[in-house]
Amino acid sequence: MDHYTLSKTDLQRLYKDIYSKADKIIEPILGAMFLFGLLIAFFYDTWLIAIGIGSLNMLAYVITKKMLPESNLYQYILSVISAIFAAQYIYQMHGMAEMHFWVFISSTLLIIYQNWRLQLPLILMVYLHHGLFAYLQYSGYSEVYFTQLAYMDLTAFLFHALLATGVCGISAIWGYTTSKRTLQDALNIKTLSALQEELRQNACKMDELNTHLIQVNEEVHLKNERLHASEEELRQINENLNALVAHRTQALLKQNQKLLQHAYINAHKVRAPLARILGLVHLFDYETEWKENEKILIDHLNLSARELDKILKEVSLNLEMAEFKE
Asked: Are 239 and 273 in contact (CB under 8 A)?
């Protein structure tokens, strides 16, 4: 099995989709945070802070995103202005403890970008704001609001900072874990898509192979039918030839039988006159007063008659043997 990885293009496409969905959630919340600043301005008449700082925060986010659309710098700006909004609310409400919870809310919201590093600007700004405002408030500066407590010792401050750090740390771990899971899911989807494509290609090859096999089977079937037809034709020809040979053989046997009978009859017909000739020749042997030339003729006639008789006997014997073989 091939080892699949996410390419740079895959990662860019993946994070672009994540950021786009996150922006659609965050931007309305960011607008609500600006409106929240205006809402709490009624309590202590902090309109200048609400409008001034809130507007600067919104402008910083919008300008950064518009000027650097391919960069994620605007997310770090978002992390910073989230901490500034929390500091703004704390100041507007004169150090109300509940306004400190905005740090935790902001930290949780940043998880949606699946980038643990976004927690760093937030917590650093919280350190800076809390440390500076706590120092100024407890140093006697008026209108510097960090807490409504008359006094906060170093231990309480450190616990405050530690808890804020813990929340940001948990959010960072959560964002990191979510990012890893998203990458793994994307890799699984890519692997699954690649395997599905491979299966589809294999299925296409199998279909082509099946189509080829079907064609081959059809060709083989057609050839078998032709071969069967040829065999049937040859069988019919053989049957016709056998019938013809049998018919011709019977005809030849009948003709041969007729010839044998005819030869046998003719041999017997010839034998009777030949026997009479032999008898006459035998009678000539009793006559003594023959001239020399007549004697020679009679001897030749006797010899020829005996040779002819011998031939007829051989013919008769051969005819009898032929009948016996049949």
From this structure: no
pLDDT tens per residue across all 326 residues of the chain: 567 898 889 899 999 999 999 999 999 999 999 999 999 999 999 999 999 999 999 999 999 999 999 999 999 999 999 999 999 999 899 888 889 899 999 999 999 999 999 999 999 999 998 888 777 776 766 666 666 666 666 777 788 889 999 999 999 999 999 999 999 999 999 898 888 988 899 989 999 998 898 998 888 888 888 888 888 888 888 888 888 878 887 877 777 677 666 666 666 666 667 676 766 666 666 666 666 776 677 777 777 777 777 776 777 777 666 665 55
Q: Is 147 helix (H, G, I), strand (E, B) or coil?
A: coil
Asked if the structure places residue 110 within a domain, the reply is yes
Report yes or no on 309 lying in a domain. no
What is the number of domains present in the chain?
A: 1
**pTM recorded for the entire structure:** 0.64
186 inside domain: no
Domain encompassing residue 127 = 8-152
| End-to-end CA, the chain | 85
In a domain, 253, yes or no: no
Question: CB count, 10 Å around CB of 320?
Answer: 11
